[in-house]
Amino acid sequence: MFKKIGFMLILFVLLLAGCSGGMSQDDSSKMSSEGDMNSSADMENASDDIAFSEGEEDNSVAGEKSKAEQKADLEANESADQRMVIYNAEMDIRVENFEKARNLLEQKAKAYKGYIVQSDSNRFDGEQQSGTMTFRIPQEHFNAFLNDAEGLSVQVNHRAVSGQDVTEEYVDLESRLKSKKAVEARLLDFMQQAQKTEDLLKISSDLAEVQEQIEQIAGRKKFLENQTALSTVTITLQENEVTVPKIENDSLNTWQKIKKQFADNINILLAAGSWIIVFLIGNFPILLIVGAVVAGGIYFLRKKASRGQNNKVDSNS
């Protein structure tokens, strides 16, 4: 009986061990399958993260561009009342004194923080002067300088003022410049993260092209700023009257005039006599030969004429 009870206990223990082993195998297989599922899920999550990061980068670039465009539009609306205009003026005026008017215009330009670009002058009819001057004047003093120039004149022959509105172009350049700088910053980030030589070369080429475009846009922007900040004024000056020398009291002395005229005539006679003496003595050999030829010719003609008369008298007799 005890043997049967012991045998039954041994069987019960073996059954318990088998059940625990089966359960452990099932759990391990289940855990391994769960691990595989978790690893695959992790890979999917990683790929999703990569795709999300790429999409985020694209969205960030688009966001930066949209922000730049919005800011440019806002600035355009704000600058609607402050237009950027390039002013040019041409004037043709008559002045009493050319030198005085030219000096005053130069002083006015300097007082307005402007400067002279070109100046030329010429004199005709021996006395009257004219010339052209080109100035660069700050835009806030543009009208004041034109009024000052008119104030120096006795007559305004021509006045023309023109303006070129470059506000739209300037705002567009600002927007383009900000977009290009954003692309430049993104390319610099890509260059730091790139590991392949091919990628580095491609990014370097794109970066050089973008930087060249930035320089061109910045140069054009600076040119427009300079042209709108300073206006160009070209003024042609013409002297109104010829300066006549004043009559001096000494010129009214009649006795002095007579003595001067007499001395001038004596000098003329002396000069003429001197010239005749020099001519005769200097050309004496030639004159001697010419005189001999002329004298011989006259003698021959007279002799021939006398012979003709004698023959006529003989025939009559």
Can you characterise this structure?
By secondary structure, the chain is an alpha+beta fold. Helices cover 71% and strands 17% of the residues. The chain contains 7 helices and 5 strands. It has helices at residues 2-78, 98-111, 142-152, 167-193, 197-229, 254-282, 284-316, and strands at residues 85-95, 115-124, 128-138, 155-165, 230-239. A 5-stranded mixed beta sheet has the order 2-3-5-1-4. Helix 1 (2-78) packs antiparallel against helix 4, helix 2 (98-111) packs antiparallel against helix 3 (142-152) and helix 4 (167-193) packs antiparallel against helix 5. The longest helix is centred in the N-terminal third of the chain and has 77 residues, at 2-78. Residues 17-62 have low confidence and may be disordered.
> Averaging pLDDT over every residue, what do you get?
76
| Strand arrangement, major sheet | 2-3-5-1-4
Oligomer: single chain
Number of strand segments: 5
The helix count comes to 7
Helix content: over 70%
In one word, what is the shape?
Answer: elongated
What integer value in Å does the Rg equal?
Answer: 56 Å
User: Structural class of the secondary elements?
Assistant: alpha+beta
Separation of the first and last Cα atoms: 229 Å
The major beta sheet can be summarized as:
5 strands, mixed
- Spans of at least 5 consecutive residues whose pLDDT stays below 50 are 17-62
Strand content: 15-25%
Order of helical and strand elements: HEHEEHEHHEHH
